[in-house]
Amino acid sequence: IAKQDKAVALRIAPLLTKTNPNKNFFSKLNFRPAPIHIHAERTWNLDISKDQESLLKEMRKTTRHAIKKAASRTDLKTEIITGPSIANRFWPLYLATSARHNFTPFSQQFISDQVNLFSKSDRIFMTVVSHNKKDVAGAIIVCYGKTAFYHHGASIKLPSSLPASHLVQWQSILEAQKRGIERYNFWGIEPAGSTNHPFKGITVF
DSSP code of 83? Predict the structure, then answer.
């Protein structure tokens, strides 16, 4: 099928343990390791069945301070968006993030298709923070069962005095709680003891 569609490569992401027999199996088929993981090696699930004060208390002091600071600013506004309009609202922020971090973004159609699919059963929402009426950070959250997944995130470059991304995560957690969600999945984090891992920054965040 890949050959018929004139694909330049076929990429797979089997959920298998990284053992020599497994590596040899794919090596014999002329597969080679991908430059970056599709699935995270390790994910972090936060128990959000607790009350808000407990969640804040368990955060790093700097994170807690950033959230409270952002929440108190009158020039920062948070919105929870549902339905197909999510894709259009998210797209400019996503392009800005792609340009800043130099990665190839998913297509707008791909994002739109995901949003439309999960919107049919009200299992997706977007948290967006604006600064002086301009969108500066946002996240698309997908809900499944009792878990909310941080699926896509984006922001424009902001000074450290505007912790909008912290506010996005916090407000996403609060919205998930309203929906009866018990776990918030931050997706990939760096494995313990690793150095210079691609997920180091997001892990600290």
Answer: S
Q: How far is it, in rounded angstroms, from Cα 180 to Cα 145?
A: 9
CB 136 within 8 A of CB 162: yes
CA 83 distance to own-chain centroid: 18
The DSSP call for residue 154 is E
> What are the DSSP E strand ranges found in the chain?
43-47, 76-81, 124-131, 134-144, 147-155, 183-188
What separation in angstroms does the CA of 11 have from each of 6, 99, 185? 14, 24, 25
pLDDT 10s digits, 52-89 = 999 999 999 999 999 999 999 999 999 999 999 999 99
> Comparing C-alpha atoms, which of 137, 190, 182, 140 is closest to residue 164?
137
Residues whose CB falls within 8 Å of the CB of residue 114, separated by 6 or more in sequence, listed in order:
124, 140, 151
The residue assigned the tokens 């984090």 is 189
Q: Say if CB 133 and CB 122 are below 8 A apart.
A: no
Q: If you search the block for the tokens 């309009």, which residue do you land on? A: 85
Global pTM value: 0.82
Distance CA 140, CA 81 (A): 9
